[in-house]
Specification:
Layout lengths: L4 H10 L1 E4 L7 H15 L9 E3 L7 H4 L5 H11 L4 E2 L4 E4 L3 E4 L9 E7 L10 E3 L20 H5 L9 E3 L6 E5 L4 E3 L6 E9 L5 H12 L12 H5 L3 H12 L4 H11 L7
Antiparallel strand pairs: 1-9, 2-4, 3-11, 4-11, 5-10, 6-9, 6-11, 7-8, 7-10
The structure holds 2-oxoglutaric acid.
The site of 2-oxoglutaric acid (AKG) has 10 residues, from strand 6, strand 10 and strand 11.
């Protein structure tokens, strides 16, 4: 079962969608897998700054199966179409506030983030806040709401006072949003657990392929030679492979960029 036509329209109009309890039945093993990835990596989060692992669900065979879960696949296909591209994602212990930003400025293609918050989060304890409609850069690319990080200078208010909707959530809920949407989080703990799945619509035109290649190039800052892990690819059923194939065919430029990043950066990026 996918989402309703009304939910799709809501997503198109406002740029986000909350799916309460979408993975409620699975949340026990999802949290176990989340913890296991950090443990396997030896990454100990000390609360002083964000800890981030990319790609994330790729790190363990069971976690990869999230990409086979009908409720996840149906959500993504309903929002951006069949044969979407899985683009990886990050697993995080967030620390404190996240300032206003969008994850992209895509005028070509459809880019989606599916986020799983593994601790209860409310408006003032780290729930994702979004500015509804701010993803519509096709309509208004100069709307000042997209400058919300400059709220003090522009409107004389702190970033935490910027008018926004807080997507309060419980473990088992899922939040999906357009990469172009302005978002932030305030008042969260120093151990806020959250991971994401990034996806984009299957590229059909030369311009869409170029945009996809640009997105893949952005993974270099995480020091990865491939957008997906070997585990993700080697354990993929034909159905999952459909979501990996186009990325595999268009990531040939990544190893050289990752090598450059390794030479220039002290550690992989934290976001
Ligand atoms: O939860 C947060 O602190 C921010 C999440 C975010 O910015 C993102 O996933 O792009």
């Amino acid at each position: 079962m996918g989402i309703t036509q009304e939910q799709k329209e809501f997503f198109e109009t406002f740029g986000y969608l909350v799916l309460p309890g979408l993975v409620k039945e699975e949340i026990g093993w999802i949290i176990d897998e989340f913890e296991a990835v950090f443990r396997d990596r030896g990454t100990v989060h000390d609360g002083t700054q964000r800890s981030c692992i990319v790609p994330f669900i790729d790190q363990r065979e069971r976690f990869c199966k999230l990409l086979d879960q009908p409720q996840i696949v149906n959500l993504i296909t309903s929002l951006i179409g069949e044969d979407f591209n899985y683009l990886g994602g990050d697993g995080n212990f967030y620390t404190g506030d996240t300032r206003w930003h969008s994850d992209g400025f895509h005028t070509i293609g459809k880019y989606l983030k599916v986020a799983f918050y593994l601790d209860p989060v409310t408006r003032d304890s780290g729930a994702l806040r979004v500015i509804p409609g701010s993803h519509r850069i096709d309509l208004r690319d100069n709307w000042d709401a997209r400058k919300a990080r400059e709220s003090l200078a522009l409107w004389g208010i702190e970033q935490s006072q910027v008018p926004a909707i807080a997507l309060e959530s419980q473990p088992g809920d899922v939040v999906a949003f357009n990469h172009n949407l302005m978002h932030a989080a305030f008042g969260g703990s120093k151990w806020r657990r959250m991971f994401t799945i990034n996806a984009c619509a299957h590229a059909e035109t030369a311009e869409e392929l170029k945009e996809l290649e640009n997105f893949i190039a952005g993974s270099a800052r995480f020091w990865v030679d491939h957008a997906h892990s070997e585990i993700m690819r080697e354990t993929a059923s034909p159905q999952r492979m459909r979501f990996l194939q186009q990325v595999i065919e268009h990531e040939g430029h990544l190893p050289a960029l990752a090598a450059k990043a390794r030479a220039e950066m002290a550690e992989p990026a934290r976001g």
